[in-house]
Amino acid sequence: MSKFNKKKDAALPAVNTASLPDIVFMLLFFFMTVTVMKDSTLKVENLLPNATEIKKLEKKDRVIYIYVGKPTREYEKTYGTESKIQLNDKFADASEVGDYILMERAKKPQELQNVLTTALKVDKEANMGIISDIKQELRKVNALKVNYTTYEGDAFRNLQ
Amino acid sequence: MPKRGAPPEVNAGSMADIAFLLLIFFLVTTTIETDAGLDRMLPPIEPPEEDVVIKQKNIFQVNINRDGQLLADDELTNIKDLRAKAIAFLDNGGAPSGTADYCNYCKGARDASSSDSPSKAIISLKNDRETKYGTYITVQNELVGAYNELRNREAQRLYKRNFTDMEAEFLNPETPDDVREELKEKVKRIQDLFPQKLSEAETSSN
Q1: Which of A42, A158, B77, B98 would bridge B72 by S-S if both were Cys, CB 3.0 to 4.6 A apart?
Q2: Is the ipTM of this complex over 0.90?
C-alpha cells in the first residue's frame, strides 16, 4: 500500500515550457511567409464568385486592382445600396476608371507599362451593367488584359 | 583576482512574449492570398480595318438574360449543359476532308451545319445589364473549361500531359529558362490547335 501513498505527497511538477518559444516561432514564421499586407481598406462588400479554370496572378507589381460591390454598412447611408466602384480608397464613378488606370500605369516602371493586368475584384451580387461600363473604359485606355479575380471552387455555387 | 566562473546565462524567459507579440501582429495583418482568376483579353476599341464576313454556322451565340437564363444557339439551355454543347461545337470539324479548313484532329460529329474547324469557330457571349456577375463568371468558367478540356485532350495525345499543367509551369516565374523555352513551343502549338476565340459583345440594355 505504501507504494501508492508515496506519490501523493510529491508536489505537482511544473510543466516544462522551454519549448514554447520554438512553437511560437514556428507559427510566427508560418504567418510571416503567408502574409500579404493589405494596401487599401475595402469599403465595398467583396464576396468573390467561384471558378475552377483559374490562373494565378503571378507578379503583384504588374497588377492594378479595381473593386466593385455594394457599399459596406457604414457607408450605406451616404452611398446607398447600389453597387459602387472603389479605386484605391475612394468610391468612384465608371467614368473615372480610365484616368485611374492611366495614373497607375504612369507610376509603374517603363518596362512594365505594357504588361499590366487589371484585376477586377467584383462582388458576385453586382450587376453586369457596371462591369460593362468598366470594360468599356478599359478598352478606351487600351488596358485590355483583365483578370476576373475569383475564389477556387465549384462555379455552380455562384448561381444560388 | 577571483577566478571567473562561466559567463552568466542570458535570461530567455521573455523570448516567448516577444515572439507572441510578433505573431499576433502578423496574424492581424494577414490576408490569405486570393489572387487567382479568369484571364481574359478585351477587344481593342478601334474596329478592324475591313469587315470580316463570318459564316453564321461558325458562331456559337450565348445569351444570358437578367434572370440568369441561358440561350445557347437559340435553345434554352441549362448552364450545366453548356460545357458539353460548347465542346461539341468547337470540336465539330464540319469542313469536308480535302478542303483547306479540314480538321484532322477533331473528334466531333462533323456536322456540316455546325462549325467548320476549331480555328474558325467563334463563341460570342452576350449579357444583359442586369445579369448577376456570379452567373456571368459561371458561364465564362464553363466556356474556358470547354477550351481547356479540348486542349488537354490534344496535349495528352501529343505530349502525354495536361495542357493546363504545361501552361501553369510555363507561366510560373520559378521555372528554369530552358524548360520554359521548350514549353513555350508546346503551349503555342496546342493553343493554335484550339485558339480561344471568345468574343464579348457590348451589353444590351433591354
Answers
A1: B77
A2: no
